[in-house]
Amino acid sequence: MVELINFANYYTNRDMIDNSSAGLKSLLAQLDVDGIEALFCDPWDAAVFPASSIHGVHLNFWPTWLDFWHGNQQALERQFGSKENILAYFGGTEPEHMLACYRRDISQAKAAAAKYIVFHVSHNELDEIYTWRFRADSLAVVDATIEMVNSIVGDIPPDMTILFENLWWPGLTLLEPRLVDRLLSRIRHPKVGIMLDTGHLMNTNPELQDERQGVEYILSVLGKLGTLSNSIQGIHLHQSLSGAYVKQSRCQTAPPVDLAASMAHIMQIDQHRPFSDSAAKQILELVEPEYLVHEFIVASREELVVNTNLQRKALR
């Protein structure tokens, strides 16, 4: 099992390693992990993030994208208010722009000799994160993902694995085995699988009270997948117990659009906290993943070290 941390090349993360490969090497040694799953917010700089440290690449994504992909301008203007806002969000006006962004990330992943790439399979509109009343269902999101990925699959090397990540919004939630099978069986690429995100899966059950209940729930969901669980090749390991907040914050009418407030709201739901209960070992024992990614949202190197050490201690 290859043990990794998630690490973006955003300036705040570069500051944690003094914007140097030596700083990155020092951090990985301090954490006793094998490397990183990279997210390229900026162009990849091999002088700071050498290919030897990169095992996987998490592709950039748009949480709201379905109507853009289908060219539904009326729905887009309802959501974003103007063509200028649509352009600002997507950086273009046609679906081909989205594909070009994915191809750019894939090209950088190829150059870094990444073994795998990660696709989010999810969609939500901004008001839906408050109301939890979704206009698109998981089948629609999965089918659009199949169409989109197959349109760029020729750019992905045959020996690079595509791992699809579960979320709690409509899409790949892992709660419907038939949709897991539909997604994996219809991608025209020889190497596909699942990146199990444990915190995202916990977010699908607002009744969870503690980590042990969370682990039991995850194991139950994986058991219902049957042989499809064999497709899980990696784990984004973290925990999220946000059910009380979800129940309290759910409303009939969404507040006025405020991107900063919306991001804060999402992070209250998707907490990315470390496991401290040794029950988390049961997930690894069941899945036996090829890649284990300690995935946290942190504000400092010190916080990253504390979280990673706490979770690794639980796994021991």
Automatic annotation (TrEMBL):
Q: Tell me the InterPro entries matching this sequence.
A: Xyl_isomerase-like_sf, Xyl_isomerase-like_TIM-brl
Where does the source fall among the domains of life?
Bacteria
What is one Pfam family matched by this protein? AP_endonuc_2
Q: Xylose isomerase-like TIM barrel domain: from which residue to which, for each copy?
A: 96-241
Protein name per UniProt:
Xylose isomerase-like TIM barrel domain-containing protein
